[in-house]
Write a structure and sequence with these properties.
Shape: elongated
Helix content: over 70%
Distance between the termini: 85 Å
Largest sheet: none
Order of helices and strands: HHHHHHHHHHHHHHH
Number of helices: 15
């Protein structure tokens, strides 16, 4: 398209010979075929295609703002393209920097996640796969811990069976079918009845689970920005104004990450039903639930010494 044809497009749209979308498509096509006419001569291949596609929704908004009385269309387009091109390049740089940050710290991400992110209330060791999506399957339940700390002869007593049942209900969010079967066999409880109890408790944990997952996402985001600022600081000269700004941001994100990690390690927002709910489900008082949990902790301490 020539400059005259481009400048005549607003009149054609006003005369209903073209609709707005059709005019935008003609301009976009001409940008891709003749990029030099739009200050895009240095862009080739995928970069040019990505920019042209990203500019299409912007062009439709510019078409609504364009006022023919202020000047021809082509200079207006070129000016807007130059501004949008700077935005496009900045977004590309940020994306490239983020990918580089993730690639260079993936080894440390695994080690830190295994040490700091995987300590749950009923876990004996960090899971083999610290990925958040796999923590559920890698999580050791309270039943497993109690069985490791007690002999088979002790588990035969009625009080130990009650302890197993209470701990299983407290960790119901993390139990799978195999765990439920083992709990039913060990405690002497009917499996179907146990499944119903666990299902009713899980239904009450949706709000807690959502808050816990949102808090973990905030912790993970703080960790990512901490690593990102650390990498940016390595490219800057200490003592400069930009270095000081990024250093303050890095300290803020680092403290945020450490504080949230510490709180999660101390069972903040743990996904577990309350003692009151467990007591109501078993038909016992809340103090008995506390006693069974305390008994399990003391038994584990004796085994560890």
């Amino acid at each position: 398209m020539t400059a005259t044809e481009i400048n005549e497009l607003p009149e054609l749209v006003a005369g209903h010979r073209f609709n707005k979308d059709g005019a935008c498509e003609k301009i976009i096509t001409d940008m891709y075929l003749h990029p030099a006419g739009y200050y895009l001569g240095r862009m080739t291949g995928d970069d040019l295609g990505d920019f042209v596609l990203s500019f299409l929704p912007v062009l439709k908004k510019l078409a609504d703002k364009y006022n023919p009385g202020q000047g021809p269309l082509l200079p207006y387009l070129r000016s807007c393209i130059r501004v949008q091109l700077q935005v496009f390049k900045r977004q590309r740089r940020n994306a490239s920097f983020s990918e580089n940050c993730l690639r260079t710290t993936i080894g440390q991400l695994y080690e830190d996640a295994a040490e700091n992110y995987s300590r749950q209330e009923y876990s004996l060791r960090p899971p083999k796969h610290p990925d958040p999506e796999e923590l559920r399957t890698a999580h050791y339940t309270a039943v497993t811990r109690f069985k490791l700390c007690n002999t088979k002869s002790i588990l035969k007593t009625e009080i130990k069976k009650k302890v197993i049942l209470v701990l299983a209900l407290k960790s119901c969010y993390y139990l799978d079918d195999d765990d439920i079967t083992r709990v039913a066999e060990t405690s002497g409880c009917d499996r179907q009845d146990l499944v119903e109890k666990i299902r009713s408790l899980r239904a009450s944990l949706d709000g807690k689970a959502e808050r816990s997952h949102r808090y973990q996402e905030q912790r993970n985001r703080a960790y990512f920005y901490h690593k990102r600022y650390t990498m940016q600081l390595s490219y800057l000269e200490p003592g400069t104004r930009m270095y000081d700004i990024l250093h303050r941001r890095d300290k803020k994100q680092q403290n945020c990450w450490k504080n949230k990690t510490c709180r999660l390690q101390h069972n903040f927002l743990r996904i577990a039903p309350s003692n009151k709910d467990v007591a109501a489900l078993l038909g016992i008082c809340e103090r008995q639930v506390c006693y069974y949990i305390s008994y399990a902790k003391k038994s584990m301490e004796k085994q560890s010494t």
